[in-house]
Amino acid sequence: MKTKMMFVTAVLMSLCLTACGEEPVQINVNMQADTETAVTTGITTAETTAAVTESAAAADTTAAQTVSEQTTAVQTTAALKAECPYSADDLVGEWSMPGTFGTRNNTLTVRKDGSVILRYAAGGTRFGKARIDTEEHPDGSVSYWYAVYDDESTPWISFACGEQPVDRISSGQDGEMQFVRISLADVAVEKMNNLTFLMKSMSGGGGDLATDPNRTVTDGNRTFTLVTDDRFAISSLGKIAFERLLEETVTGDAFTHWKGMLDDSFREDAYILTSGAHGFYTFETAHGVTLSDQTDSSFTATTNDTSQLDGTGVAYFVFDGVNWTIERYEFQ
């Protein structure tokens, strides 16, 4: 009887609260014994909603903080890149090892598309693509590098970015390889001087080459003398050095012509013709040259001085993918 009355009382209380407009209360009644009843009251709908809302808000705050942190990191990285004052375009042009500009130096060409051609004095060429690499340090500072890549993920040479305009670069690799900027006029003068030297050497008198007059060979009525001059030889004496110099100087029909002359001027790959001397053309470059008709792959160079015998030398240059070479020339 006592148990039944407790159940009726609970039902009446529930009806009363509903009629008064209050949220209904969930009541669980557990009948453990005739004389004892355990009653557990649940959480109201309003309290449950508040808890869920608070939990969702906390999750939104955490997510917002994470997004904010990620955005800040991206913005910081973007700002570093945006603030970088350097570009691969800084290197566009011609470069040579410091010192006397000539065939004994490593030389470098950087094209407008970022392509890099490194020519080693001892022979051989390496190609790559230049870009700017960023190095962030623990103290928050940033350093920049002109890095040259090929197909590998690691640059094969890098030059520290420094003062602008960039006229000198030094690598942290390959024994601190250094280059200084040179002009196309410098390139033109060197190539013109090379061609003058070659024409003079093959003029039949041996030119200004050092030779050993006691070591000669004859072919018919012509005499050939052993070359001992190593000024233009890098890894060997004689014809090989001349062939390399010729390849770096002229191209096209000019190369075909002078290659034939070179073959005719040497015997046994080390003896040069020293009889039957004849005249040769000379580019007068003491006061430099004037450039005209410049494009990305060609230009014309005219000597500022005039030879009394030959007149003014004009050379038409093209970039053959590796070197600037003389495609044709004339004297006016």
If you had to describe this structure to a student in words, what would you say it looks like?
- With 332 residues, this protein is an alpha+beta fold.
- It contains 5 helices and 18 strands.
- Strands 8-7-6-5-4-3-10-9 form an 8-stranded antiparallel β-sheet.
- A hairpin with a 5-residue loop joins strand 5 and strand 6.
- Helix 3 packs across helix 4 (239-249).
- It is elongated and about 75 Å long.
- Residues 1-43 and 70-81 have low confidence and may be disordered.
Could you give the topology of this structure?
Layout (H helix, E strand, L loop, with lengths): L1 H18 L7 E7 L2 E6 L3 H39 L9 E4 L10 E4 L4 E5 L5 E12 L5 E8 L7 E4 L7 E3 L7 E5 L1 H18 L9 E9 L2 E6 L11 H11 L2 H14 E2 L3 E3 L15 E4 L5 E6 L9 E7 L4 E8 L1
Antiparallel strand pairs: 1-2, 3-4, 3-10, 4-5, 5-6, 6-7, 7-8, 9-10, 11-12, 12-14, 13-14, 15-16, 16-17, 17-18
Helix pairs in contact: 3-4, 4-5
Number of H/I helices: 5
Low-confidence stretches: 1-43, 70-81
For the CA atoms, what is the radius of gyration?
43 Å
Into which percentage range does the β-strand content fall?
25-35%
Order of helices and strands: HEEHEEEEEEEEHEEHHEEEEEE
Main sheet strand line-up = 8-7-6-5-4-3-10-9
Number of strands: 18
Shape: elongated
Summarize the amount of helix as a percent range. Answer: 25-40%
